[in-house]
Amino acid sequence: xxxxxxxxxxxxxxxxxxxxxxxxxxxxxxxxxxxxxxxxxxxxxxxxxxxxxxxxxxxxxxxxxxxxxxxxxxxxxxxxxxxxxxxxxxxxxxxxxxxxxxxxxxxxxxxxxxxxxxxxxxxxxxxxxxxxxxxxxxxxxxxxxxxxxxxxxxxxxxxxxxxxxxxxxxxxxxxxxxxxxxxxxxxxxxxxxxxxxxxxxxxxxxxxxxxxxxxxxxxxxxxxxxxxxxxxxxxxxxxxxxxxxxxxxxxxxxxxxxxxxxxxxxxxxxxxxxxxx
Length: 277
What we know:
Blueprint: E1 5-9, E2 12-16, E3 20-24, H1 35-44, E4 48-51, H2 58-64, E5 69-74, H3 76-89, E6 93-97, H4 103-108, H5 115-118, E7 125-134, E8 137-139, E9 142-146, H6 147-157, H7 163-176, E10 183-185, E11 188-190, E12 194-199, E13 204-205, E14 208-209, E15 220-224, E16 227-231, E17 233-238, E18 242-247, E19 250-255, E20 258-271
Parallel strand pairs: 3-4, 3-5, 5-6
Antiparallel strand pairs: 1-2, 7-8, 7-20, 9-12, 9-18, 10-11, 10-17, 12-15, 13-14, 15-16, 17-20, 18-19
Helix pairs in contact: 2-3, 6-7
């Protein structure tokens, strides 16, 4: 890995980034800096930057790069694909919050409303954090099954309509669907309309998510209403043979049984350096 530095001369920061690639998802929903502002600042700092166009595959671009650090500017659903390539290649990952909620950036200790400031991670310090797997699919935050996942699927189907109408319609469908999932967890039947498997522990009030104090605990946490379990792995099965899921907030359908497992401290992550006040 190339040398990084962030030093001060007379109180003026000097930025020397690692040889890195930043992939920018311009379609991430947010109300902060526009993509052009982020891209201009990234390139000014000497970071190779690519803005995704329709049809581009962020993971393929990351695999084709020889960069010594791989960064993704996007929402929570955009991050895992590039993070997985970084893990496979053994290079650090940089998260630049550029979505709506930016839960992972918040739990990593970043200002989730500060994508420009997050670029300093390319000259920052390294941490190691856990990742989760749902079978072979990597997740950084959590996987939800049941009513919240169904809401995400309905919202995605109606995303081209007015946002407020889509949200109300999605919640209406979810709240009137009262059948349990009909699942087993590690062989035990569980009657619940919602299951959430998290990479490390959340302060949780279903279906809303709080923060995670740690990203390196080495445990998955499984939540159903009234119950929480912690383990290195879980096996979830369903008679239906498949379950609608939301993986880091992105809709998916997972074939059952699903093996959830933790990979402790598997991912190298760069974070911005401490700056003296």
